[in-house]
Amino acid sequence: MEVNLTSLIDVVFLLLIFFMVSTSFTKQSQIAIRLPEAASTAIIEEIPQRIEIMITETGTFLVNGRELINNRPETLRNALQKVSAAGDKMPMTISADANARHQHVVTAMDVAGRLGFTQINIATVNDPVE
Question: Where are the domains of the chain?
């Protein structure tokens, strides 16, 4: 009695071909990333990226939200020098109340220009429609 292995070999070859065709041979690439670790836990004070001068109706100057003690040009110049850590390359926005005197806006622009600021923007606010 002989066992016919031909049909068994055919089935094994068919299974082998089926698995070879149905298997995907994609190699997924991986990138080795080393994440940085903090060496110290010191708190670094964030330097503002822009300077904002607000002028109220009464002529009070606010530099980056901090009110100045008076509205003299020297006080404004000292405040601008203090907050401009990056020098005169920082962009500056001047916004004034609608009822503020025009002279206060000109004073702020004059002080900024004398300090060498060239990126001066004037902000306007549209009145809401009632």
Answer: 51-123
pLDDT of amino acid 45:
61
Helices 102-114 and 73-83 sit at what angle, rounded to 10 degrees?
A: 50
pTM: 0.58
Structure tokens at 60: 């009070």
> Cα-flanking dihedrals φ and ψ of residue 55, to 5°?
-120, 120
Check: CATH 3.40.1000 for 51-123?
no
CB 79 within 8 A of CB 68: yes
